[in-house]
Amino acid sequence: MSVHLVGGGWSPGGDPEVTSAFLAEAAGRAAGSGRIVPRVGILMVVDADTPSAEYREGYPESFRRVAACEPVVTIVGSGETFAPSVLTGIDGLVVAGGLTPAYLAAVDPLVEEIRLLVADGLPYLGFSAGAMIAADRAIVGGWRINGIPVCPEETAEDLDEVTVVEGLGLVDLAVDVHAAQWGTLSRLVAATEAGLVDGGVAIDERTALVVGDDGFAVFGEGSVWQVLDEPAGVIVGTLGA
Known about the structure:
It is a single chain. Helix content is 26%, strand content 32%. With 241 residues, it is of the alpha/beta class. The chain has one domain (2-239): Rossmann fold (3-Layer(aba) Sandwich). The strands form four sheets. It has a seven-stranded mixed sheet. A four-stranded mixed sheet has the order 10-11-14-15. Strand 2 (39-46), helix 2 (53-64) and strand 3 form a beta-alpha-beta unit. The longest helix is centred in the N-terminal third of the chain and has 17 residues, at 16-32. It is globular. The mean pLDDT is 95.
């Protein structure tokens, strides 16, 4: 079982450093089912024009630019939920980016099945919102704690107070994304200090943290910032490749 957490950022030409390991796992699972080309389920939630039409069309194709695969894309609007059939006959699952609270609501009927499939070896890749909701205690947005700003308001996901809810439970640490690019590391630090979460990771764009049975690995061009809640206070460092 591997969970691939990507901090955002993508290229129409593909991002092999970030997605190759995921696609290789999907190919291995496909081979076990007698398929030559892996079927990759990609779930997207659209709220107004978020994510953009360019992303909705280009992001699934970017996987094909890295390795042979069949993206199976399902798009729902904000407020809608995914049908259980989106999990049928796939060799890897991608939960894409956009408005994080809308994504969590859309996958709510599938949470138990996703947990079972990932535990059975289905590789999961969460991109931005999909990475944030992979946590057991998921930060889904907000920019203030007790009315005090802790990160840029533009990163708030339409929420005021930093909000932590039950996520997919695929990893036992909180996740924030676009860390260096959007300044969200401070949100994770503040949420940890306030006791909303027990630490976690903030992932830069074009960077993946892969969590598996044998530990973790970091891929891509940025950093994965680790936030620890220690008796002496909150400690921040980076995870190495």
